[in-house]
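ok so for the tutorial part 2 we go from a plain amino acid sequence to predicted C-alpha cells. step 1 is just haveing the sequence, like this:
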Amino acid sequence: MLKVNIGVCLFVFILAFSSCTTDDLNSNYSDSLSQELENSINSKSQGKGLAFFTQPQSNDFNNIPQDPNNPLSSAKVELGKFLFHEPALGNDPKITAGKYTYSCASCHHVSAGFQAGRKQGIGEGGVGFGLNGESRFMHPDYDEETCDVQSIKSPSVLNVAYQTNMLWNGQFGATGVNEGTQDLWYGSEALTTNALGFEGVETQAIAGLGVHRMSINPLEIKEYERYIDLFARAFKNQPNTLSKENAGLAIAAYERTLLSNQSPFQMWLKGDAGAMDDDEKKGALLFFGKANCVSCHTGPALNSMAFYGLGMNDLSGEGTFNVKPEDSAHLGRGGFTQNPDDNYKFKVPQLYNLSDSPFYGHGGNFESIREVVEYKNEGVAQNVNVPQSQLAPNFRPLNLSEEEIDQLTAFIERALHDGNLQRYAPNNLASEMCFPNNDLQSKIDLGCP
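step 2 — the prediction. this is what the C-alpha cells look like for a chain of 449 residues:
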C-alpha cells in the first residue's frame, strides 16, 4: 500500500511540475517576444523609444499636434463634435429633398472607423444607413451628376492630428508639403481655402463645408441656444462667432482628438505586455522588421506625409457612381501639383481601425486587410496605367510566408483596432435630428423617432 501511495504521489508531483514548467515556458516566451519587439521598435524610433509611436489621451491638448492658429480647447472640441454630426448644417442642397439629411459624418462615421464604410462616400442624395454605411444608395430625385459622391475612397479622419496636409493628394493645407505651391491654390473654390494659412485639417474642414453646401445659417441656428453658447465659449472676444470659418475650425479641433489610443498596440506601448497575443506580436515584429512596413508607416498614427506609387486600381465596379477616368483624383499627388513625376503617387495613410470598413486602397478595390498584405508581398502592380517609373522603389516582393502574412494581418487587423470609438460620438444633437444621416430611410435604419 505504501508503494502505491508513493507511486501516486510521485505521478502527481511529476504532472504538477510538468504543468508548471510548461506554463512558465509559455510565460517566458511571451515576455521574451515582448522584449524582442521592444528592441525592434526602439531601433526604428529615431532615438525616442516607444514614446515615438505612442498616442496621448484625447483630452491631453498639450501633446496633441495642433495648428498654432487654431489652438485646442474643450469648448471648441465639444462644439466641433456636434457640428461634425449635425445634419442641420446641410441647409443648401442641390435638390430640396436633400435638405437636413446629411452631415460630415455621413462619409466619416464612427461605426466605420471614421470612414464611409463604402468604396465611395455619399453625402447629399444618399438614402439609408446600414451597420457600416454600406447600404446607402441614391435618392430617386438625384442622378449621378447631382448626387454628392466622392471621386476617390473617403480616407479616415481618425488620427488626422498627425497629418499636416489632407486628402490622398495632400492638396489641403498651406504648410508642410504644400509650402511653395501657392500658385496652385486658385484652381478651385475649395483650394482657395489654403490662402487662409491653416494646416490641412483646418483647411479641409472649412473647405468641406463649402464643397458639400453646408453652412451656419444664423436665422436657423439661433433656434438652438446650445450652439449659440458653444460658439461664444469656443471663440471668445470675436464680434461674429457664427461663421463658416469658425465652424470649420471647431470641426477640425474635434477631429484632432479622434485618437485610437485604446487599441491593443497602444496599450502595449504603454506597458501592458498582455494587450497583444503572440501572433499579433509576431506580426508587429514583421511590421517593424522583415516586412519593413515602418519605413513608410511610422509615428503615432503609423502614417507619413510621403507620397508613393503602389499601382493600385482606381474606383470601379459595383457601388460606385459618376466615376470619370479623366478625373485628376486618379493621378494622386500629380493631380494637384501638375508635376508628371508625382503622377499615381498617393499619401501614406494611417493604419488604425482599418478593419471597421471592408474597402482598402484609394480605389477601395481590396476587400480585406489580408488582400492588401498579399498584394504588397507580391509586389506586382495591378493598374496597367501606372508606369514602372512611378512605382515606389520598395514596392517589391517581400517573400513573406503564408504564416507570416497571417501574423502581419493579425497585427494590423486586431492590434491596431480601437473597439471603443463610440466614445467620440455625441449622445444627441441640439437640433434633435437623427445622425449621421437624417433621411427617412436612415431614421428607420438607425431607430430614430
